Amino acid sequence: MNSKIILCAALASSTALFGCSREVTSSQNIKTAGIAAIIDVTAENDELSTVVAELRIGGSSSNAFVSLDGDDKLVATADDASKDMVVEDLAGVYEAEFPTAAAGVKFSVTLERAEGDETARNNNGNMPAPFKIGPLPDTKPSRATEDITITWDTPDTSAQMVARLNGTCIFSETIDVVGDEGTLTIPKGKLQSTGGDMPTECEITVTMTRTRKGTADAAFDPESSFELHQVRKASFVSAP
């Protein structure tokens, strides 16, 4: 099968004015060493994890993808349960879901190749601990004059925690949480208001992402990766 160009759907953003394209090539034309596998396991609650594998050619940021054809396939495993990964929306992006998000669950992904090319089975990692965000302020704290504290249960110092805050009245803010000890204090003035001289109150969404790095098979392109994430969201109203 020859390479083909798939046009991206138009997006409601300025980038849509310029258009974009995704090149998709059959796996029968690509050796395992030429595939960058970007694999993520994500749980947004305590009951379900989604495994997503993007297969790219030319590195992790390339816009050229691999479509698995013939006997080539991806198989995802959570503990002892295995599923063939399938294309949900875009060629070159494969998914599988598992009814578990518990701490320590081992996830793995295997690229099975037809005879004559190298199978990549050493893609794996263990899920970081799930958590719950504690009560957020219900008093509309002023982001300009008050510190704002966010807490969560089940600290996990073996993983990395990142907080992202978004709202219509602030510029988006991303904060690396050093140590993941279950608490983050956002100092007054840290969240910058939009609106110039007329800042407003709004609902701010807090997205906490706990990430643990796994291992990608050395048979893949060196830019391959395997990461596991626990993601939780909560919100509060902030005054200027």
Bulk shape: elongated
State which percent range the strand residues make up.
Answer: over 45%
Oligomer: single chain
Query: What would the average pLDDT be, to the nearest integer?
Result: 91
Describe the structure in brief.
With 240 residues, this protein is mainly beta. It has an eight-stranded mixed sheet with strand order 8-9-4-3-17-16-13-14, with no helix packed on it. Strands 7-6-10-11 form a four-stranded antiparallel sheet, with no helix packed on it. It has a three-stranded mixed sheet with strand order 1-2-5, with no helix packed on it.
Q: Could you explain how this protein is built, in words?
A:
With 240 residues, this protein is mainly beta. The chain has a domain at 148-212 and 231-238. Helix content is 0%, strand content 46%. It contains no helices and 17 strands. It has strands at residues 4-7, 21-26, 35-43, 49-57, 64-67, 73-78, 81-84, 86-87, 93-98, 106-112, 120-126, 148-151, 160-166, 173-177, 183-186, 202-213, 225-238. It has an eight-stranded mixed sheet with strand order 8-9-4-3-17-16-13-14, with no helix packed on it. The protein has a four-stranded antiparallel sheet with strand order 7-6-10-11, with no helix packed on it. A three-stranded mixed sheet has the order 1-2-5, with no helix packed on it. It starts with a strand and ends with a strand. Mean pLDDT is 91; it is low at 1-19.
